[in-house]
Specification:
Blueprint (H helix, E strand, L loop, with lengths): L1 H11 L3 E3 H8 L3 H15 L5 E3 L2 E3 L2 H10 L12 H14 L6 H8 L3 H16 L4 E5 L3 E5 L2 H16 L4 H7 L5 H18 L5 H21 L17 H8 L8 H13 L3 H8 L2 H18 L6 H21 L8 H18 L1 H7 L5 H15 L9 E6 L4 H14 L3 E7 L1 H7 L5 E4 L8 E4 L6 H17 L1 H12 L8 H12 L8 H4 L13 E4 L8 H11 L5 H14 L4 E3 L2 E2 L13 E12 L5 E9 L7 H12 L1 H9 L3 H15 L4
Parallel strand pairs: 6-7, 6-8, 8-9, 10-13, 12-14
Antiparallel strand pairs: 1-3, 2-3, 4-5, 11-12, 13-14
GO biological process, one term: phosphoenolpyruvate-dependent sugar phosphotransferase system
GO molecular function, one term: kinase activity
Organism: Robertmurraya siralis
Length: 677
């Protein structure tokens, strides 16, 4: 078997060779080479050496099989090329929690001390660019130092490069860096993980990951130190995949939370971690966030107050969202279905507006991610200029950040006179000892402060009852109410009368008759009620140039807008009509309300003979809008977005001949879909 073994070793260290290479190398006839290959294959009762069209090669699996059986642990390598030595040095230094002498490193890499010294100089120069250094001690030797996250990244990269070299697995085995039995166990766990979380690893990933994981585990065990890394801010712990990946390592009790997070990244996206970090921290996301806000403003015809503040909120969420999207993580949002049941219209508007983010990842954002963004947008829709808050409050919640975010959004919109410090766990609140007037909580707490226990999602009845309870508490706090009223009227009172007025206001507010009816409490934003005057069915053909004048004419007749507003709308619409779209073939000519809007108004025009835009798009419906400065038009516009986005309803309106039926569709659909924002 001596001749066959020599041929086998030669092939194991090559990618692929020609039969002529073997005949020259071993001074054999072609037939003798072919016989040797057949003999080796027959000993396994299957092909471990593949011979096609004079080309001879082995797979990495077959090389390892031959190494374990025919070579029986006999050393395969007599030397390593520079590339293999370079990556082997990184791996050894990264997984050994000790200094290694020059002689030890030279023995591992099968070269002289001078050669290994030159190799170390090259490696030191390269990895210093990543902030990693080779620490040298004359007494002890060499060690690798730097950020744990970066060291693990270069370790993973080195393992991949070794695996892509010839007989890389055997190289790791010969240096006692891996155990094949552990590789087999990790591979089986990865296969089971695929079934549990419904994702698919490529064949290459399934081959490489057990080696990567085993060496990362080895470093984690040997160093066993507390560490954290940048990815923690990207909220991987709340994804669907993380708990399942965590279970995969149930018997590795030395792993920290950071270790498990890092292993999760390797399992799902080991080759994209650094590039994803670079994208999410760059200007690209900030630019996309600005475009997203512009889309929201365009789709809802509104101006966003405190724009920079909102942009920061968007970025805080969307950076991790894009990161998760790039890496293939699915966020776990327990409120998704409940949110959609109440705020479907908001969701649809946001879904239309997230294109800038999806261009970055070249993937669609998941429903759960869009719901998170919708929660943020929900808070801005009715937000007006800030008024000075009289009361302070806090939200306590133990069910996760998604519920906290939604509660804050809802409560801030319901109680503008209350300043909400933030959302906390009960433990955080007790530790911080915050001074507040009200506590809104989803879990029972004992506290001397006025406390309201509320459900995570507030429906219409919940909101009405909560408003009544809070208002009663406010009215019971006479001092606060007097301060509030006096703050508002003080500029209009002469100095000598302030004390008298203060007393009179106090007496008045202490009178128990002061109350609010349910109707007053239910001051939710109202939907616009369409009458037949707000609907036009146009049978004659209209030219593109006439479109805005025809659409705006009823608004002008009702004195909702001025001629100046129509002129400004014409300029804006004809220059940017491709952005003033509600749904397919449905256009929304409008301009800023400060330029001639007397009152909010709508006119829906259905064209039986559609006109066409300059780029050939059909115009079937036009919604002429006179927007409100205070965004009162937004709920109705959201409703119309939803109505016209439904293909069946859109077709029904386009084909309907009766203006009364169209009126019913617009109003009844609105009632059905009112999200009670």
């Amino acid at each position: 078997m001596g001749g066959e073994k020599r041929i086998l070793k030669y092939l194991m260290l090559k990618d692929s060779v020609q039969v002529t290479d073997l005949t020259l190398e071993f001074e054999l006839e072609k037939s003798e080479v072919e016989d040797a290959i057949k003999k080796i294959n027959s000993s396994f009762k299957k092909d471990v050496i593949f011979y096609q069209r004079d080309g001879v090669y082995m797979t990495e699996n077959s090389k390892m099989l031959c190494y374990k059986t025919l070579l029986k642990g006999e050393k395969l390598f007599s030397h390593y090329e520079f590339r293999e030595r370079y990556y082997l040095l990184i791996i050894v230094l990264a997984v050994e929690n000790k200094y290694l002498s020059l002689l030890e490193l030279a023995d591992i890499c099968l070269v002289s001390k001078n050669t290994i010294l030159n190799d170390l100089k090259c490696m030191k120069r390269d990895i210093s660019k990543k902030g990693i250094e080779i620490d040298y001690s004359r007494k002890h030797g060499y060690s690798i130092k730097g950020s744990e996250f970066t060291i693990r990244n270069i370790l993973v990269s080195a393992v991949k490069n070794i695996l892509h070299s010839q007989a890389g697995r055997i190289l790791l085995e010969e240096n006692s860096l891996i155990k094949e039995s552990e590789i087999f166990r990790l591979r089986k766990r990865l296969e089971r993980l695929e079934t549990r979380i419904g994702f698919r690893l490529t064949d290459e990933q399934l081959d490489e990951l057990p080696y990567i994981i085993q060496l990362v585990l080895r470093r984690a065990k040997k160093f066993n130190q507390s560490w954290s890394f940048k990815i923690e801010k990207y909220d991987i712990k709340n994804t669907i995949e993380f708990p399942e990946i965590q279970k995969m390592f149930w018997d590795f009790d030395y792993l920290s939370q950071s270790d498990l997070l890092y292993l999760s990244l390797q399992v799902l996206a080991s080759n994209m971690v650094e590039s994803a970090l670079e994208i999410t921290d760059g200007d690209q996301v900030a630019i996309a966030a600005e475009e997203f806000l512009q889309n929201i403003e365009t789709n809802l015809v509104m101006k966003i107050h405190r724009r920079n503040e909102l942009k920061e909120k968007i970025l805080l969420h969307v950076r991790p969202a894009i990161y998760r999207n790039l890496l293939g993580f699915q966020i776990n949002n327990p409120l998704t279905e409940e949110f959609l049941s109440q705020y479907q219209e908001i969701y649809e508007v946001v879904k239309k507006s997230v294109t800038p983010f999806q261009k970055i990842t070249q993937k669609e954002l998941s429903k759960e991610e869009i719901v998170y963004l919708s929660m943020i947008v929900l808070g801005l829709i009715y937000e007006t200029e800030e008024t000075e808050a009289i009361y302070k409050a806090v939200v306590l919640c133990q069910s996760g950040t998604s519920i906290s975010k939604l509660l804050l959004v809802n409560l801030k919109s319901m109680f503008p006179e209350i300043y909400f410090i933030g959302a906390y766990s009960v433990r955080q609140f007790e530790q911080n000892n915050l001074d507040v007037d009200f506590i809104f909580t989803t879990v029972p707490v004992k506290h001397k402060t006025s406390t309201f226990i509320i459900p995570p999602i507030l429906d219409k009845q919940d909101r009405l009852e909560l408003k009544e309870r809070v208002q009663c508490e406010m009215l019971g706090n006479n001092d606060k109410m007097v301060q509030s009223v006096m703050r508002a009227i003080k500029p209009y009172i002469s100095e000598q009368h302030i004390e008298t007025v203060y007393k009179k206001v106090g007496d008045l507010l202490s009178n128990p008759y002061t109350s609010s009816s349910n109707e007053d409490l239910n001051n939710e934003k109202k939907l616009f009620r369409f009458s037949i005057d707000n609907i036009s069915i146009i049978n004659e053909e209209i030219s593109w140039e006439q479109l805005v004048d025809i659409s705006m004419k009823p608004l002008l007749r009702r004195k909702s807008v001025t001629e100046a507003y129509i002129e400004e709308t014409k300029k804006a619409f004809y220059a940017n009509y491709d952005k003033m779209i509600i749904a397919q073939n449905v256009y929304l000519p409008h301009f800023s309300p400060e330029n001639g809007v007397n009152r909010m108004d709508f006119q829906v025009l259905v064209f039986k003979n559609p006109t066409f835009t300059p780029n050939g798009e059909k115009v079937s419906i036009v919604v002429a809008l006179a927007p409100s400065v205070t965004n009162e038009h937004v709920p109705t516009l959201i409703k119309l977005n939803n109505i016209f986005s439904d293909e069946k309803t859109l077709a029904q309106i386009i084909n309907e001949k009766s203006i009364f039926v169209t009126e019913n569709i617009l109003n009844e659909k609105g009632a059905e879909q009112n999200c009670e924002l």
